[in-house]
Amino acid sequence: MFNIKRLSDIQKKTSAYNNFFTVKELKERLIPIEFKDEIPDYCKCGGEYIMTSSFTEAQCVDPYCPYKMAYTLSHFIRHMGFKDFGEEKCKTLVLATYDSFQYPSFLCVFSVDENIIFAKLGQADANNFINIRNTLASTPYRFNKSFPALGIPDFGANCKLLDVIKTPKEIVHLLASGKINDFLDQIGMRAPIYKFYLDVFDITITLLYSTYAPLAIKPGKKELYIAITGNVTLNGISMTRTEFLHACSSLKNSDGEQMYELKESKSKSKLSYVIADAPSASEKYEIGKELNILVTADEFVKILKDNID
Ligand SMILES: [Zn+2]
């Protein structure tokens, strides 16, 4: 699979590329075409550029092309919420190191020796990259956020797979047990291209959830202890404590999952926030002030919303 440079070679492996042509061939057959000089015949990696006869975007034929890997890495970094490490930096890093990758996966860049990272990127960018790597390893991410970040074509945030599978463990198991193709058939993702892409990204998916971002948040409610002082106003509407708690608890993510289970508490060790729209002499207000966790009702709901994927 690794290092496929010709369309004819990939067409022998999968019917997913049956309606593709090399750019070179299209130029010869369909003269004149306006992109004749704009799109090269070959990728810089040496792979043929290919596209369908309906002129979909040209792409390198090699599923593991280093230029594609660099692009996918930048997509991944951006979608996981990191800044200041864009495509050019990804390109520098991937092109300088991909010969040493143990597996055909852009994620292997996170295993590159730190000395090499500093040598290739310079101090500031290397520190940023190492920080990204460490954050990935220590932060629990939701499956529905991390899986689309892999940039697998046709497996974006709205793909059917994410409706059905809720945890990384499930997909890793389906890949490892060889049951993934049957599973795709069952959920109606029957086209050969789906199977092909999951085959190409099999190692990447497994590496992400076993090594590079191993902590996953299971879908379900997040328990949060809060205290509410006095009357609160949300979006200009005055509410009782019960109404406010109900409004917060009914926040849902894009999958319609309830995100928070709020519990009232006065315990300093448990409290995450004290909600107060105005100062008061109450014990709860004093605790909030002491722990520096005072927020208004509107601020609190914004925090809750911002933490929904
Ligand atoms: Zn290429």
Write up what this structure looks like.
This protein has helices at 7-13, 23-29, 66-79, 87-97, 114-121, 123-138, 143-149, 160-164, 168-176, 180-186, 192-212, 241-249, 283-291, 297-306; strands spanning 20-22, 49-52, 59-60, 141-142, 216-217, 222-229, 232-234, 237-239, 260-264, 273-276, 294-295. With 309 residues, the chain is of the alpha/beta class. It has four domains: 7-60, no CATH class; 66-138, no CATH class; 141-217; 222-306, Rossmann fold (3-Layer(aba) Sandwich), CATH 3.40.50. A four-stranded parallel sheet has the order 9-6-10-11, with helices on both faces. Strands 1-2-3 form a three-stranded antiparallel sheet.
**β-sheet strand percentage:** 5-15%
Strand order of the largest sheet: 9-6-10-11
How would you spell out the order of helices and strands? HEHEEHHHHEHHHHHEEEEHEEHEH
CATH architecture of the largest domain: 3-Layer(aba) Sandwich
Uncertain segments of ≥5 residues (pLDDT<50)? none
Rg value: 25 Å
CATH topology description of the largest domain: Rossmann fold
Q: Counting H and I runs of at least 4 residues, what is the number of helices?
A: 14
Number of strands: 11
Number of domains: 4
Distance between the termini: 34 Å
User: How can the largest sheet be summarized?
Assistant: 4 strands, parallel
Helix content: 40-55%
CATH class call of the largest domain: Alpha Beta
Mean pLDDT: 90
**Distinct small-molecule ligands in the complex:** zinc ion
Shape: elongated
- Return the structural class: alpha/beta
